[in-house]
Amino acid sequence: MRSVAVVPARRLALVRSPDASPAPTSPRKNPRDWRWQVRNAITTTAALASALPLTDGEREGAARAAREGLPIAITPYYFSLIDKSDPRCPIRMQCVPDRRESLTTPGDLEDPLGEVAHEVAPHLVQRYPDRVLLLATDRCAVYCRFCTRSRMVGDGGGARSLEALGPAFEYIASHPEIRDVIVSGGDPLAMATSRLVALLARIRSIPSVETIRLATRVPVTLPMRITRELVQALRPYHPLWVMTHFNSPKELTPAAETACKRLADAGFPVMNQTVLLRGINDDAKTLEELFRGLVRVRVRPYYLLQADPVRGTGHLRTPLAAGIAIMEQLQGRLSGIALPKLICDTPGGKGKVPLVPEYVVKREKGSTTLRTFRGEDVVYLDPPSD
Question: Given 147, 262, 282, 303, which residue is catalytic?
Answer without folding.
Answer: 147
